[in-house]
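One thing: mind reviewing this one?
=====
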Amino acid sequence: MTNLMQRHLAPTLAALAACLAGCASQPPRGTATNTYSADQAGKRDEFLGDRDLAAKFVLVGIKTETRDGRLRVQFDLKNTTSADLAVEWAIDWKDRNGFRIDTNPHWQPTMVTGQGFQSIQATAPTPEAAVFQLQLRKPTPIR
C-alpha cells in the first residue's frame, strides 16, 4: 500500500470503527425499552434499556389494590424536563410464580407536558395476575 493510500484510508477506517462502536451501543429510535415491575407488596425492579429515557421520565405515586378480585395499579409518569415529551407505554401481567399471563399488550402513546405528570391506571386482565410490568419506550416512527 502506498503512503498516499494509507493517509486516506486510515482516517476512513477510524471513522468507520467509531461509527460501528457508537451504533452498536445506541439502539435505533423506538426499540429500547425500560421495564418497571412491581407487585402488591411493593417490591419493585427496574430494567433500563434506554438511559436517556430513564433520565427524562420517573414513576411516582405507585399504588396497587385488589378490587373485584383483580389487581389494579395506578402511577404517575413524571417528565423531568421542561419540554413536552411523547412516550409510549404498555403493561404486561404475570402470575404469582412469574409466568406471563397471555394477553396482547398494546402500546399507548401519550404526551407528558414539561415538568408535568401523566396518570396511568390499569386493571389486570385476570384474577391470577399478581405482578405488573410497565414498559416505556420512545415513540416508534411510522414507516
About this structure: Residues 3-25 form the longest helix (23 residues). The CA atoms of residues 19 and 28 lie 13 Å apart. DSSP finds two helices and eight strands in the chain.
